[in-house]
Design brief:
single chain; 142 residues; alpha+beta; Glutaredoxin; 4-stranded mixed beta sheet; elongated
Length: 142
């Protein structure tokens, strides 16, 4: 079993690109399709703590009940926001990747490179053709 876990939504291009970058380093991660198998509330608390970011930064607005639930209201506490994510997993921004080197919300997908110990094994372009890894396995910078 891999020591890397990705909280993944296969319908999301960023999530697919992140998964492909992990695999491009020769690792088959544990893939948690969090819409099918949502993390528990305790796991959400653990993930957000490991991310070391405000709870609001892991909330997804697009394509979710965010506006309907009025989650932009600053009076919601972190605990209440986590409860909403637990009830509506689509509110969790993705992908979140956990490795021995850290936990990241991988937006953009190449953020995963900062927490992978293994080098990239081949050139890599995102689904939309943007080069990320060159022919020597190095990160492409703009």
């Amino acid at each position: 079993m891999s020591n890397i876990t990705i909280y993944h939504n296969p319908a999301c291009g960023t999530s697919r690109n992140t998964l492909a970058l992990i695999r491009n380093s020769g690792i088959e991660p544990s893939v948690v399709e969090y819409l099918k198998t949502p993390p528990s509330r305790d796991k959400l608390v653990e993930l957000i703590a490991a991310l070391d970011v405000p709870v609001r930064s892991v909330l997804r607005q697009k394509g979710t009940p965010y506006d309907e639930l009025k989650l932009g209201d600053p009076s919601w506490t972190d605990a209440q926001l986590i409860d909403f994510i637990a009830l509506h997993p689509i509110l969790l921004n993705r992908p979140i990747v956990v490795t021995p080197l850290g936990t990241r919300l991988c937006r953009p997908s190449e953020a995963v490179l900062d927490i992978l110990a293994s080098p990239q094994l081949a050139p890599f372009n995102t689904e939309d053709g943007e080069p990320v890894i060159d022919s020597k396995g190095r990160r492409v910078t703009a």
